[in-house]
Amino acid sequence: MSSSESRLDGRIALVTGAGGGIGRACVRALAATGAKVHAVDIDGAAVESVAAEYGGWAHTTDLADPDAVDALPAEIDILVNNAGFQHVAPLPEFPPEVFTRVQQVMVTAPFLLIRKVLPHMYERGHGRIVNVSSVHGLRASPFKSAYVAAKHALEGLSKVAALEGAAHGVTSNCVNPGYVDTPLVRDQIRDQAAVHGLPESEVVGQVLLQRAAIKRLIGPDEVADVVRWLAGDHARHVTGVSLPLDGGWTAA
Ligand code: NAD
């Protein structure tokens, strides 16, 4: 961070899915830049350890529960909608209840949180919404119907928030990682190996990164650095965009 404009001192952030992976890295990056962070996750032990390490507040919350989402604070300057999970299955076998839960956690909860924090952001004339989407918000892959549908919905929600928030100093953007080195991906390597009938060792190169030019998983800290950049005052003119961090996947 080169200019004082890039600091986030005095800002209050809320990060969902903060217990691990990209969310935890976002808490670390935002706190290191001066923000105080509400860390939200269904995994209470994980989120307590994040708050113990980086300061701020821990909230043990199941984002599929609208009442639990409603209990979260509204006085938020930087909202990072990050929580998510994957389920891999062919469409005829995809469990409807899992499809519904994916939409609740990855679409309805971001909607409820945006709806909740916007009045405070409008009052302050400033706000940053960063939605952790995916390359799967822009492209589809087989066997990921719920996840691809949810991420495409998040893209639309983010753009509407950008249009409505613009007059109030609020920006809304998506970041769109390719495969990140997190537990979510390590689980997928196992699941994809079963679906494609490949050994796990071949899944990263042949399946996950088949369409990417850069053949390595991105680190969570690299994603968090971009989230932090979008949260800064300098990014006030960047809104309604979806920023691929995909090693060239969508360029091909
Ligand atoms: P992760 O599994 O490491 O972290 C996800 C976090 O969300 C976990 O801590 C989990 O407990 C939490 N969570 C899940 N369901 C929840 C619920 N109902 N209520 C509250 N918290 C819940 O995964 P990650 O890779 O860090 O993923 C974070 C985000 O990044 C997700 O939205 C994911 O879709 C997106 N993403 C990940 C990758 C990747 O390759 N890992 C790529 C693109 C996008």
UniProtKB/TrEMBL annotation:
Keyword Plastid annotated: no
InterPro entries, A to Z: NAD(P)-bd_dom_sf (IPR036291), Sc_DH/Rdtase_CS (IPR020904), SDR (IPR050259), SDR_fam (IPR002347)
PROSITE patterns in UniProt: ADH_SHORT (PS00061)
Keyword annotations: Oxidoreductase
Name of one Pfam family that matches: adh_short
Domain of life: Bacteria
Gene3D superfamilies: NAD(P)-binding Rossmann-like Domain
GO biological process, one term: monocarboxylic acid metabolic process
UniProt GO molecular function: oxidoreductase activity
Family: Belongs to the short-chain dehydrogenases/reductases (SDR) family.
Record-given protein name: SDR family oxidoreductase
Provenance organism: Amycolatopsis alkalitolerans
High-level lineage: Bacteria, Bacillati, Actinomycetota, Actinomycetes, Pseudonocardiales
